[in-house]
Amino acid sequence: MTETPSFRSDVTVELVKHSASDTDVLWAARVSTAGEQSLEEIGRDPERSKGLINYLLRDRHGSPFEHNSMTFLVSAPIFVFREFHRHRVGWSYNEESGRYRELGPVFYVPAEDRRLVQRGRPGQYDFVPGTPEQHALVGKVMEESYRQAYAAYQEMLAAGVAREVARAVLPVGLFSSMYATCNARSLMHFLGLRTQDERARVPSFPQREIEMVAERMEAEWARLMPLTHAAFNAHGRVAP
């Protein structure tokens, strides 16, 4: 039976597994001076050595922040993943495939607090709230377009057309899911580019939808590595 299209304005991020703590930074950094004795750091309280973490962030000694791993399950519109995949160093991805499964009809429609109107020109523009009429138009047009596209997709599948061909009519507002694995250093680089934050030394202007994903990933990382996260913020949110 054909599913009825549904519409959502949120994204979801789940931390599915990890091996990540502030201690990972410390033993990796101290091997340069303590050799194999740096393993003694594994059982120690990292709070004692938060000065070292701050030093590493401040002076951009980045490799100690790579000895950890976090895997996230992300559900978001396809256009978010097309931006996400620009981040290649220190990231691994596996995404849901429209070649091998029939894609479900879940589509993105912006929430009422999503700023709709762009002012200025690239490099110097900002976004401002839309009018109620603009929001109503966006919702109406998007939903109509999504319904038509998914009906065309279902029509071709029913006629025996291969999934990898039929999917061509589906829009980038369709929700997809992927696993994304990274370390703290690659995540910091991602956050520096994909979030707006007043503490950032270098301003960034991300699309709101990928920023929503970034905010949820940052919240999970901050819980796992609070000293590293605090140092990241203290030193301008620039990846080492």
Query: What's the number of extended β-strand segments?
Result: 8
User: Beta-strand percentage?
Assistant: 15-25%
The structural class is alpha+beta
Strand order of the largest sheet: 2-3-8-4
The biggest beta sheet is recorded as: 4 strands, antiparallel
Helix content: 40-55%
Overall mean pLDDT score? 93
Order of helices and strands: EEHHEHEEEEHHEHHH
Separation of termini?
52 Å
Q: Give the overall form.
A: globular
Rounded Rg: 22 Å
Tally of helical segments: 8
Low-confidence stretches: none
Describe, in plain words, how this protein is organized in 3D.
With 240 residues, the protein is an alpha+beta fold. It has 8 helices and 8 strands. Strands 2-3-8-4 form a 4-stranded antiparallel beta sheet. Strands 1-5 form a two-stranded parallel ribbon. A two-stranded antiparallel ribbon has the order 6-7. Strand 6 and strand 7 form a beta hairpin. Helix 6 runs antiparallel to helix 7 and helix 7 crosses helix 8.
Summarize the structure.
This protein has 8 helices and 8 strands; from the N terminus they run E-E-H-H-E-H-E-E-E-E-H-H-E-H-H-H. It is an alpha+beta fold. A hairpin with a 6-residue loop joins strand 6 and strand 7 (126-128).
